[in-house]
Design a protein that fits this description.
Radius of gyration: 38 Å
Shape: globular
Oligomer: single chain
Structural class: mainly beta
Number of strands: 29
């Protein structure tokens, strides 16, 4: 009984005295999901051209001016691919190409030694290979054409410390896919620092693509099995000759310093004060643009004087003249010198436009200083009062011997072979008209703005005093019914 009683008490305590123990409620664990940002690596599309040269020049890439370069390397970021490289130096033009690789730097160093200079593969020596028509063409690097004799020039210099010998063993020309050996042999002993240049004629070549190859025996070692270390090959093109408009040939005007203005002391007030001007070299048309020249390019002519192919064009606005210059550049494959926009035209005249300078080697109007320097005869000057003579009748059409425009080139040329820079028709210059300063100037281009442009030369209706080399006139650039023509120049 006692054991039963104790058992009952134990059961009752368990059933009624103990609190119910509930399991703890578990809170759900929330894990915050972090966003993973995807990083995109940009696609590399550019590379760097590191370019330098022995002297200062204007760098053009694919026909566009980029910057001036010199001895300090210039790093230029460009889209990858092959680029046409042209650099205009003071006395020659470099033309070549360079391949820009993605994310890499391509180095180009242009030697002063000449056009298309290239290092020779034999250690310690270098060569220059140039194809040209004449010395002027050799300097400018202009196209080879089928109407002229083509010459090959090449040279070597020993930059080592020992006497060496260079013998040109074989020169070959590839025409229409076939190689032809020309077989000139040249042998010269080379002491350190000594060099030589050889030149010979390839004759008149037909229009087409060519390759020229020179194989050299360095130091009398005959490498019959491997020419890769002692040969140089390049390709070139001979083009159809350019057909310039009638009479439009050019005289080279070597740069220099001259005194500009009324140096005789009997001119008009606006020819003073005299002042010193320094100019770079340039080319100037020997003749005024003729009616035939103008009509062939523009499609029509406006004239007031005599009508005929070889008479000077007149009755053109200043805007007509700069437009003609651009069209002639385009016709001959040159980059136009001017940017011309917002053109306004009335009848056959351009009466207004926005004109800025793009630069380059295209045709353009002469500056007033260039015009007077050429009229004086440049470095060949004999100090004449009129362009080519002190006798006005020898060189000029003016009021006493003419009552109308004349055929160009009939009077005596000046010291540079340029005609009609005194009289016949007045000629447009680039400059806005302004008064002279007594300060020395280099390559002046006149005021930055104005209402009238400069016209030079005087005209057939004017007295001797107005057809001198220093006479200057102010003319409205948008009026076409005035007897003004023009001639063109190109930068050297």
């Amino acid at each position: 009984m006692k054991k039963l009683f104790i058992f009952l008490i134990f059961i009752s305590l368990f059933a009624f005295g103990k609190e119910e123990i509930k399991p703890k409620e578990k809170k759900p664990v929330v894990t915050e999901k972090k966003e993973t940002k995807k990083t995109t690596t940009p696609v590399q599309k550019t590379g760097t051209l590191s370019i330098s040269a022995d002297e200062t020049g204007e760098l053009y890439i694919d026909g566009d001016f980029v910057r001036y370069i010199g001895k300090s390397a210039q790093n230029i970021v460009l889209n990858a691919g092959s680029k046409n490289i042209t650099v205009y130096f003071n006395n020659y033009t470099y033309k070549g190409s360079s391949t820009i690789s993605l994310g890499k730097t391509t180095s180009l160093y242009i030697k002063k030694s000449g056009i298309d200079a290239a290092p020779y593969k034999d250690s310690g020596n270098s060569d220059t290979l140039v194809l040209y028509h004449n010395e002027q063409n050799k300097k400018t690097g202009e196209d080879l054409t089928s109407d002229k004799e083509t010459f090959l020039s090449f040279g070597y210099i020993n930059k080592g410390t020992e006497t060496a010998k260079k013998i040109v063993r074989k020169i070959s020309l590839k025409e229409n896919g076939n190689w032809k050996e020309l077989n000139p042999n040249y042998g010269e002993d080379f002491t350190p620092g000594w060099s030589f240049t050889s030149s010979f004629s390839l004759g008149k070549l037909k229009t087409g693509q060519y390759s020229i190859k020179i194989v050299v025996d360095p130091d009398n070692e005959i490498w019959e099995t491997d020419e890769s270390n002692n040969s140089y090959e390049r390709t070139f093109e001979v083009k159809e000759p350019k057909k310039d408009p009638a009479y439009l040939s050019y005289a080279y005007v070597e740069g220099g310093t001259f005194t500009m203005g009324d140096t005789f002391g009997d001119g008009y007030y606006n020819e003073k004060p005299i002042h010193s001007v320094t100019l770079d070299s340039f080319y100037m048309s020997k003749y005024e643009v003729t009616q035939k020249d103008y009509e062939e390019l523009i499609g029509y002519i406006t004239y007031n004087g005599n009508l005929g192919d070889n008479y000077s064009v007149d009755m053109v606005t200043w805007y007509d003249a700069v437009m003609y210059a651009n069209k002639l550049s385009e016709k001959e494959g040159l980059k136009p010198y001017y940017n011309i926009s917002s053109v306004t035209k009335e009848r056959n005249w351009i009466t207004n436009a926005t004109v800025t300078i793009a630069g380059g080697k295209g045709y353009r109007l002469p500056t007033e200083a260039e015009w007077e320097y050429a009229a004086r005869g440049g470095k060949q000057t004999k100090g004449y009062k009129y362009s080519g003579s002190n006798n006005v009748d020898e060189v000029a059409w003016y009021s006493s011997n003419s009552n109308d425009t004349q055929i160009v080139g009939q009077k005596k040329a000046n010291e540079l072979g340029i005609y009609d820079m005194s009289g016949n028709v007045m000629e447009w210059c680039w400059d806005w008209y302004g008064t002279y300063s007594s300060s020395s100037q280099t390559n002046p281009m006149g005021p930055t703005s104005g209402t009238s442009r400069v016209a030079r030369s005087g005209g057939y209706w004017m007295p001797p005093k107005a057809v001198t080399i220093s006479d200057r006139e102010m003319k409205s650039p948008n009026i076409g019914n005035q007897p003004i023509g023009f001639r063109l120049v190109r930068s050297y």
